[in-house]
Each structure stands twice: as C-alpha cells, then as structure tokens.
Specification:
It is a single chain. The chain has three helices and two strands; from the N terminus they run βαβαα. The chain is an alpha+beta fold. The protein has one domain (about 5-60). The N and C termini lie far apart (about 35 Å). It binds flavin mononucleotide (FMN).
C-alpha cells in the first residue's frame, strides 16, 4: 500500500530523506506550497533534477539551472 507522509515538511533535504530512506513513498506539502507554489521546481533545481513545464514557461529557465526544464529531447 503506498504511504504518503505529510506535516511540517519544509526543506528539500528533509523531503528527499523521507522518500530516499523508504519511510514513505510520497510526500505531501500543504503550507509549504501555499507559501511557495514553485517549491517543487526549486527542489528539482537543488537536486539537479528536471521538471516538465508548459511551453509558456520555457523562457523563464534560470541561467544557473540550464537543464532544469525537460524539453523532451
Ligand atoms: C489551508 C488549509 C486547509 C486545510 N484543510 C483541511 C481539511 O479540510 N481537512 C483536513 O483533514 N486537513 C486539512 N488541512 C490540514 C492538511 O491536510 C495537512 O494535514 C496539514 O496542513 C499538514 O501539512 P503541512 O505541514 O504541509 O501544512 C488543511 C491545511 C491547510 C493549510
């Protein structure tokens, strides 16, 4: 049964540790995302991962994260 952890998850490393250690399969964010709706993008940038974005956002990719947006090739 998939397990989702929720409550007081605010930091990228904290979130990654919960999933990476197998404590839970997914994390859920409430207040953290109310405060910063782009938190998942910032987390992806922090870990060198990629995110899929609508085409309209492609021009907003930060210079310091040139591979953040998955452009599908
Ligand atoms: C604006 C807001 C509305 C919420 N409404 C409900 C609700 O109707 N029922 C419920 O069980 N929990 C509700 N919660 C609690 C969340 O489900 C969650 O357990 C809690 O916010 C912990 O996650 P967080 O620390 O990431 O905010 C709400 C939380 C927020 C911030």
């Amino acid at each position: 049964m998939p397990v989702i952890a929720v409550g007081l998850i605010t930091e990228f490393e904290q979130a990654e540790a919960i999933v990476g250690t197998g404590d839970a399969d997914l994390i859920a964010l409430a207040r953290t995302v109310l405060y910063n709706p782009r938190w998942p993008w910032h987390a992806a940038a922090h870990f060198g991962a990629q995110v899929k974005v609508p085409d309209q956002y492609l021009r907003s990719q930060p210079r310091q994260y040139p591979d953040l947006f998955d452009i599908g090739h």
